[in-house]
Amino acid sequence: MTTAALRMQRQLADADISSLCDRVFVAQRDATAIPKLTDDYPQMTLADGYAVQFELLRRHMAAGQRQIGWKAGLTSKAKMDQMGVRVPTVGFLLADMFRPETSTIRTDDLVHPRVECEMAFVTKTRLSGANCSREEVLAATDFIVPAVEIIDSRFSGFKFDLPSVVADNSSSARYVTGGRARLPMDVDMSTLGVVMERNGEPVAMGSSAAVAGHPADAVALVVKVLDSLGEELPAGSFVMSGGITEAIAVSPGDHIGVRFQELGSVAMRFS
Ligand code: OOG
Ligand code: MG
Q1: What is residue 72's predicted lDDT score, i.e. its pLDDT?
Q2: 193-198 and 201-207 as β-strands: parallel, antiparallel, unpaired?
Q3: In order of start, what are the domains of the chain with their CATH numbers?
Q4: I need a surface site. Which of 126, 194, 227, 257 has the fewest CB within 10 A?
Q5: C-alpha 88 – ligand 2 centre gap (Å)
């Protein structure tokens, strides 16, 4: 896993970044599918994708939204294989994307939602730097908690490339936490089993080992990506470390339950 690609220069002018941000903003707000951005801007780079994402974040903050933390995306082989993108990404998480455990989550304000099981971290000290390590992440972790992310690509057919998905905030849409919060030293996070059930049938299963070798490595990756963009991870951040298995499509009426070894369950319903 490398952040070298992030040093790539931007190719697009500020005006293009701003108009691409408009496109993504409207597609997210109205839950409409749009073609991937590189269809119109084939020269668009990963750095351009992050420029669009950060402009989107600035707009949400200016509108009074609150940021809760970050997510890592495409950190497991299962996810990379499913999406055909082999570089992990990050995305921001806002307070209004959160949904409580056991709640009913609407799908009519989403394009084509899918669910993923993830380990989430809450930090107690600041993390920064291009060489952030697993050990630093574990030392800075207040607690870990199981989470389910509801992703929703704004791109037609859930098909995208790296610059486009980064501009679309790495498909972030909703997230749910539940189960039991645990101290990082009390569980072996490298090999926790997870089973996802849809309407009582197992639909995906895996081990936390699938996440970049160790979920804390994915948090370190978030810190490294933020560093390459001139940012750091503040204390008190909520960070999701990426889908352990492939993502599973959900429809109105579906019930999703995820059992995490040692960490309890997270459940929700879709309407
Ligand atoms: C990109 C977001 C991936 C994860 O956990 O891997 C992601 C996507 O698959 O649409 O959130
Ligand atoms: Mg995810």
Answers
A1: 97
A2: antiparallel
A3: 4-270 (3.90.850.10)
A4: 126
A5: 11
Q: Are 212 and 43 in contact (CB under 8 A)?
A: no
Burial of 1 (0-12, 13-18, 19+ CB in 10 A): middle
> Cβ distance 37 to 164 under 8 Å?
yes
172 Cα to the center of ligand 1, angstroms: 8
Nearest Cα residue to atom 4 of ligand 1: 73
Element (H, E) at 82: helix 77-83
Nearest ligand by distance to the CA of 74 = 1
DSSP-derived secondary structure for 195-225: EEEETTEEEEEEEGGGBTTSHHHHHHHHHHH
- Chain center to CA of 92: 8
Centre of ligand 1 from the C-alpha of residue 152, in Å:
9
Nearest 10 degrees: Cα torsion 133, 134, 135, 138: 130
Q: What is the pLDDT of residue 1?
A: 39
Q: Rounded distance, CA 241 to CA 162, Å?
A: 18
Q: Confidence class of residue 3 from pLDDT cuts 50, 70 and 90?
A: low
